[in-house]
Amino acid sequence: MLEIKDLHVQFNSRDHEAVSGVTLTIHDGEILGLVGESGSGKSVTAMSIAGLLPRKQCKLSGDVLLDGQDLLHAQRSELRRLHGRKIGVVFQEPMSSMDPLMRVGTQIGETLRIHQPDMPKEERHRLVYEAMRDVELPNPEETYRKYPHELSGGQQQRAMIAAAIVSRPSLLLLDEPTTALDVTIQAQILELLKKLNRETGISMLFISHNLNVVRKLCKRVAVMQKGKLVETGTTEDVFFRPQHPYTQKLIESIPTRHGKEVR
Ligand SMILES: Nc1ncnc2c1ncn2[C@@H]1O[C@H](COP(=O)(O)OP(=O)(O)OP(=O)(O)O)[C@@H](O)[C@H]1O
Ligand SMILES: [Mg+2]
Questions:
Q1: Protein residue whose Cα sits closest to atom 8 of ligand 1
Q2: What residues does CATH 3.40.50.300 cover in the chain?
Q3: Taking the complete model, does pTM exceed 0.85, yes or no?
Q4: Which of the residues 66, 215, 237, 242 has the least number of beta carbons within 10 Å of its own beta carbon?
């Protein structure tokens, strides 16, 4: 469903490409993991897909196709429409992606208000409540009227996921969505993502530093180093039979519990 072909991203201020010839496919309904050291180009790859790169500050080349539609070279207006409706994005820090002055429910409905301005208010409210139920936010009526700071960290991240899925996109980009959360909440959010994937068939690109989390959530994993994709394979293969020396090092560095191998 999403095809990235030979993607290159060069920031004007840099002498090395941030992304250097990445070719990657996200299949219908799958959760693809994207791992690699800090600065390897994971977020820049996700931002290219989401159309969030500052176009004036960088050069882009290659192809990004979503259901056959070109995302990299489309007109700005067309891009905005595609992104709002077909691709949802969730980042690490829920608080910094939320508007502190906007009620949670209004915020969840924003993409609908912007991208489907003709939708009657009642219909929009209905879809917001549906998304809130999907992400299991408690007391939807009450939560709708709250402000972001009145929610817990986990609830804020649930609200951000609700905002990302409210227009029923076919792809969800998740960039370290649980890194800022404590371990228990992290586990709950991962369960939620699994459930959403299972029940709605939405495809996901899941970026994380935490290889244990990726192993639990993803059937396929891609590994990046210095802007390049060094290995892509089933989670099973990448974790048990890593081919590339960099992947081997990465797998060896996974923290083990109680001194025992968790693999
Ligand atoms: N707006 C920007 N201007 C200039 N360089 C940038 C910009 N955004 C990212 N970069 C550079 O692009 C490279 C890839 O960055 P990216 O954020 O994709 O890494 P990452 O794999 O997501 O790392 P992390 O795991 O730390 O989030 C880095 O060298 C980074 O400094
Ligand atoms: Mg990043």
A1: 44
A2: 1-74+174-254
A3: yes
A4: 237
